[in-house]
Amino acid sequence: MGRYDGCAICMKTCPVQRYGMKPVMEHYVATGEVLGKGTHNLEGYTLKDKGYFGPKEKPHFDKGFFDIPRGKEEDWLFEKFKERMAKEGAPPDGEAADFANVVKEAIDKSHSKVGQVEPQQ
After folding, report:
1. pLDDT value for 3
2. Which of 20, 27, 30, 39 has the smallest number of Cβ neighbours within 10 A?
3. Burial 93-110 (b: 16+ CB within 10 A, else e)
4. 66, 45, 64, 65: which is closest to 54 by C-alpha?
5. What is the pLDDT of residue 89?
6. CB atoms near residue 115 (< 10 Å)
7. Cβ atoms within 10 A of the Cβ of 118, count?
8. Cα–Cα–Cα angle for 61, 64, 66, nearest 5°?
9. Radius of gyration over alpha carbons of the chain, in Å?
10. What secondary structure does DSSP assign to the chain, as a single string?
11. Which residues, 6 or more positions from 20, have their beta carbon under 8 angstroms from its beta carbon?
12. Non-local CB neighbours of 23 within 8 Å, separated by 6+ positions
């Protein structure tokens, strides 16, 4: 859900986050119901590129949305490059050089992580 600005639907639709613990508990004791349940005020939210969803409405995500890359960024880039080569053949020289630069940037970035301990020689 990081694609959706951190998502946070759970916090957006949490009555305690919206109204505070005391009003939510007082309402529950008095009525036996969750404050705001079923209302646009509590259960309405917007997802970038998906639109607005109200009570009982849910976004739909295709299967590909959940294909999350695993491993290091440079490994993932190389796998995607291999898949493309299998389908389309070798890329033009300029494109191959651009790809090499992207992989080099990913490697440099992974080697410059804050707090990373360098191996002892």
Report:
1. 62
2. 30
3. eeeeeebeeebeebeeee
4. 45
5. 86
6. 4
7. 6
8. 70
9. 23
10. -GGGTT--HHHHT-HHHHH-HHHHHHHHHHHSS-TTTT-HHHH-EEETTTEEE-TT------GGGG----S-HHHHHHHHHHHHHHHH-SPPHHHHHHHHHHHHHHHHHHHT-TTPPPPP-
11. none
12. 35
d(CA 87, CA 66): 23
Residue with tokens 């639709």: 13
- Measured CA to CA in angstroms, residue 53 lies from 10, 13, 14, 15, 21 at distances of 13, 11, 15, 17, 25
Strand partners, 53: 45
